[in-house]
Design a protein that fits this description.
The chain contains 8 helices and 12 strands. The chain has 384 residues and is an alpha/beta fold. The protein has one domain.
Length: 384
């Protein structure tokens, strides 16, 4: 019976793997699923004509992060010595944030800046976009993201809502390339729902074009990215070393305590070990871990009530915690040291069953930061 329960938890966690930054503890995952499938979410069928007007990306208000203004994405972990290079970096990053829209009765976000959803988006800037501020000018669009409840619908409905949200991301990326990039190299980065959208950008706008040669790498992290989507790509490959270029990186984080749990479908996923940057990388010990950074601010997880701002404050990022975990890829998943009793334990217990989806970025903050710098330098060296 215990084995059956663990398998069921693995399956349910997969359903939640597209949800970004959601932190629930203990049985929170099961409660979330119960709410989503029986009580919560929009009551009317999805109708894109009911959504707010599409955001115009010439308007700075429709960007969660821009290098031309100060934001929480500019925060640097204490004591690491990095300087603010926003606006002067030779490389850009286009970051697509995950799901922060957890309340409300509409299928897509209203773009209301005075909302808990907007505060969740700022949490993502502070804790997921910030690792790239050491190498790159940070750009991140706001978009009419899919409501969390869309993930618990029939495939047709889920695909419609996500497809609608993707159109905003695509238009934002096209605007970024045409108006901000000025021919510079760029990194594509994302998490969870953002990774769903970024994988489409790779397939539809980047692969097989000159943009693939300008793309340093794609850090499309969290959720599900199957290896087979790269079989048909012409110029975008999977990274298999710390300095590979024009390639994609992906992992989905779990506790090593569940390494022997059967997880249907996960074996087909891409797994990059961020301690070695090897594809399907084997066990890499704690000595290679450059540092986790405890998240700043509070991610609001309530699934009911009005989507109003609560005044979340963001403290400066603390000092990195080095040599905290080991990591290994196995059967498409990334397994790390169990985080019970660490500063990340409460956050990382997000979906129960050993699913550390909410820790995909924070526990590898310094590893991502330093590797992004390394790949950028390799790109610049090769470019002469």
């Amino acid at each position: 019976m215990k084995i059956i329960i663990r398998i069921l938890i693995g399956v349910l966690a997969l359903a939640l793997a597209a949800i970004g930054g959601l932190y629930l503890t203990g049985n929170g995952m099961l409660l979330t699923i119960f709410w989503a499938t029986t009580m919560g979410g929009p009551s009317l069928p999805f109708d894109e004509t009911e959504a707010v007007e599409p955001p115009g990306y010439s308007d700075p208000d429709n960007w969660a992060a821009l290098p031309s203004r100060v934001g929480v994405e500019d925060m640097i972990p204490k004591g690491i010595g990095d300087e603010d290079i926003q606006g002067s970096a030779p490389v850009d990053v286009f970051f697509v944030h995950p799901t922060g829209f957890l309340r409300g009765k509409s299928w897509t976000y209203s773009m209301d800046k005075n909302s808990a959803t907007e505060e969740n988006t700022q949490w993502m800037m502070a804790n997921q976009a910030s690792p790239f501020n050491g190498c790159c000018n940070v750009y991140a669009p706001r978009y009419r993201q899919a409501n969390i409840f869309s993930y618990f619908q029939e495939d047709e409905v889920r695909d419609q809502v996500l497809g609608f949200a993707y159109q905003d991301v695509r238009r934002a990326f096209e605007y970024f390339i045409a108006n901000f990039s000025e021919g510079k190299p760029f990194i594509l980065a994302s998490h969870s729902q953002g990774t769903h959208h970024s994988s489409r950008l790779l397939q539809e706008l980047i692969d097989g074009t000159e943009l693939s040669q300008r793309m340093v790498a794609a850090y499309i992290i969290g959720g599900t990215i199957q290896r087979k989507i790269f079989d048909d790509m012409k110029t975008v490959t999977l990274c298999d070393s710390p300095t590979d270029l024009h390639c994609a990186i992906h992992w989905d984080t779990w506790s090593e305590d569940v390494i022997d749990t059967e997880m249907p479908g996960v074996a087909e996923n891409v797994c990059t070990n961020p301690l070695s940057w090897r594809l399907n990388g084997g066990l890499t010990e704690k000595s290679s871990h450059l540092g986790a950074v405890v998240a700043s601010g509070v991610f609001q997880v309530e699934l009911s009530g009005s989507d109003v701002a609560t005044g979340v404050a963001f403290d400066p990022l603390g000092s990195p915690i080095k040599n905290m975990l080991r990591a290994q890829c196995k059967d498409g998943a990334l397994y790390i040291s169990d985080q019970t009793g660490t500063p990340f334990g409460e956050q990382g217990g997000s979906f129960g069953g050993g699913n550390y989806h909410g820790l995909d970025y924070p526990v590898f903050h310094m590893d991502i930061r330093e590797n992004a710098k390394e790949r950028v330098q390799e790109y610049l060296n090769r470019s002469g």
